[in-house]
Amino acid sequence: MTSAEPAEKLLSPVLSASWDDDRPWTLATYRRHGGYEGLQRALAMPPDDLIALVKDSGLRGRGGAGFPTGMKWQFIPQNDGKPHYLVVNADESEPGTCKDIPLLFANPHSLIEGMVIASYAIRCDHAFIYLRGEVVPVLRRLHAAVAEAYEAGYLGKNILGSGIDLDITVHAGAGAYICGEETALLDSLEGRRGQPRLRPPFPAIAGLYACPTVVNNVESIASVPPILARGKDWFKAMGTEKSAGFTLYSLSGHVTNPGQYEAPLGVTLRQLLDISGGIRAGHRLKFWTPGGSSTPMFTDEHLDVPLDYEGVGAAGSMLGTKALQVFDETTCVVRAVTRWTEFYAHESCGKCTPCREGTYWLVQLLKRIEAGQGAAGDLEKLLDIADNINGKSFCALGDGAASPIVSSLQHFREEYEQHITERRCPFDPAASTVWAGRGHVHESATEREVHA
Ligand SMILES: Cc1cc2nc3c(=O)[nH]c(=O)nc-3n(C[C@H](O)[C@H](O)[C@H](O)COP(=O)(O)O)c2cc1C
Ligand code: SF4
What is the atom index within ligand 2 of the atom nearest the CA of 356? Predict the structure, then answer.
């Protein structure tokens, strides 16, 4: 692909193909687009062959880590006499990440069909959707779609005469980012406070109610029916060798036309900007995230990085959730990182010390730097705290919190220094009064004291 290619050649709408139809969320529309044909094929295959097919397709998890989906299903022990569970992670709370919610809103049956196929493969007769609770319209739509699927015989007893049973429970979470971490999600689903579990044992061995459990992202599961319907070779023909297929890229921020762009893995931000109207008029790109706020930020030097797992990794970041948050030259990087860090401090579940204490202290330091009250040595302190969080926390939320600190200092250290030496925010001089009025942070980062 070249950036000069027209949108219709660059994009590969599959999950989003029906979004512009009238009432795309209904079963009738879904069927008109070939919906539930993949399920018919799947039910005609032995479950192990189905797992092998998904494995061979090269589908990798779309929830952030890119773990091969078929391999995850294969880890479920067979003939162990225990119930098996499928849990779909629809918590979607990372700043910038906004693909699963629109997908569920526009096309809920793609998830339901994928869940029936996945449940058949892993021998599960009760599956769950853990949805972020704030999105009530999506919750209603999901409930309606599940009811439609029961009515049509795609759920319940003896699905399509196959002898297979499946019930789906839709669960609304209470809106905590940590409940997207798969083991915290399982605790929350079981009715406990959502905090990550120690691993091993992994969910495939002891997950929901201590039974073998597959936890997959919405988009991962929704990508399975088209693979069944059109074949693994069709899927592998898109994307790159190790990152096969199509995916949803969520373009947001200072762009002319933000939105969901479904394209083969390996497309570049330059190409996506070319077909989406570019950076907003009169401005230029300053920095961006390839996969949400937890992924190290990129700059305009990275416009041609292939947005697949390997390409983004080789360039020093992570593909994550493919949430492309774009910031132009009017954005203060210190302010943006401060806002993200406030989010991580708020969402830290408190289970482990490096993240609970570290995110708190990062916010204190960042706020005073942003307000022009920073001191010499603050940048080293920021890096030191980030280093004490990264890789030393109990779960990946901590690593995610450290990531914008480290990458923004790598690319924009001078801008941080400017805040300290000029004693003001160069983007918003008025901001310097905000923090001054509240006092200053005690120099020792071991005491939680803010002196007025
Ligand atoms: C703090 C945190 C939040 C997460 N939030 C989500 C989420 O909202 N949705 C999601 O699918 N995965 C999320 N993940 C990743 C999950 O733990 C898990 O890897 C994913 O659901 C696996 O699905 P996949 O293999 O289909 O990608 C989160 C991880 C962490 C550490
Ligand atoms: S890293 Fe943060 S969110 Fe994860 S367990 Fe520790 S305190 Fe909780």
Answer: 7
